[in-house]
Amino acid sequence: MSTSFRPPKAVVIVLLLALAGGGMAWWSQRDTSRATGSRLYGNVDVREVEMAFRQPGRLVAVKVDEGATVKAGDLLAELDAQPLRDALAAAQAEVQRAQAELDKLRRGNRPQEVRRAEAGVAQIEATLRRAEADLRRQSELAATGAASQRTLEAARAARDEAAASLASAQQAASLQKEGFRAEDVAAAQARVAAAQAQRALAQTALDDARLVAPAAAVVQSRVREPGSMVGARDAVLTLSLRDPVYVRAYVAETELGRVPPGSRVSLRTDSSPKTYHGQVGFVSPRAEFTPKSVETTDLRTDLVYRLRIVVADADEALRQGMPVTVSLDAGAR
């Protein structure tokens, strides 16, 4: 009668545990190899915009709250615009005043002023004729001894004075007819241009009393409330842009040749089963130490290169700083 050998149960259990441990080690090594060879790790990078006014004022309205979705052109907040409207009205009045002055210079003197200058010339011409006639008479009397030399010199002086007055009046009449100098007109044109520029600045300031969204975004934070006095460039709201959405990832120098710009990738997050798709848009030319947020301990002290991946089908589930696993699409460019 033959008997078969049966190993003790304890030995069998030890062998099974050893085989299971070896299999798990093999699988872990296989998965690690796959992760380092075809996977990258990074974080979602959503661009933010701090919305602010370009001039100070009192905040009278904030139209959106945190978490609100806005599109380009939506009204976000408003300042008290009354001081800005008053400034615009004053600038408009200055434009009108400068334009009226320019129009006056371009039209020249009024016809009545020209005729008055001409009448002054005619009056002095008559005075000159009388002075010349009196000088001739005194000259004849002086030749016969009937008039003194002093009387003759007084008549000659009166004639010369009348002649000088006539020349002055003729010049004044000529200026009245010709109008203003070209330099005066150019200066008036410059004053009009300056007034128009001030009006444009006042209009821009009034337009800036309304804060509008520059693009589709989500309101990240509401910094100021109605009634607050805000200065120029003081943030009122912070927006997270919905497009584009980037992923910031890192690749070791040995894997750098596998992810040139234009490479297509797949992206997964821990919070959603959805697979996103993207394309490598930028590879940093400078090496840096792996950030602590990258959870691959074997790479944490190595030098890596930063990638910027543009997500093609991003949605609201991708949030700022969210960890992302990036899978390289084999052979995809």
Report on the structure:
The protein is of the alpha+beta class and 333 residues long. It has three domains: 36-46 and 243-328, Elongation Factor Tu (Ef-tu), domain 3 (Beta Barrel), CATH 2.40.30.170; 49-80 and 210-238, RNA polymerase II/Efflux pump adaptor protein, barrel-sandwich hybrid domain (OB fold (Dihydrolipoamide Acetyltransferase, E2P), Beta Barrel), CATH 2.40.50.100; 89-203. Helix content is 44%, strand content 29%. It has helices at 9-38, 82-107, 111-144, 149-178, 182-207; strands at residues 39-52, 57-62, 69-70, 75-79, 210-212, 217-222, 229-230, 235-252, 264-269, 272-289, 303-311, 323-328. It has a six-stranded antiparallel β-barrel with strand order 1-8-11-10-9-12. Strands 5-4-2-7 form a four-stranded antiparallel beta sheet, with no helix packed on it. A hairpin with a 2-residue loop joins strand 9 (264-269) and strand 10 (272-289). Helix 2 runs antiparallel to helix 5. The longest helix is centred in the middle third of the chain and has 34 residues, at 111-144. The protein is rod-shaped, with a radius of gyration of 47 Å. The two termini are 73 Å apart.
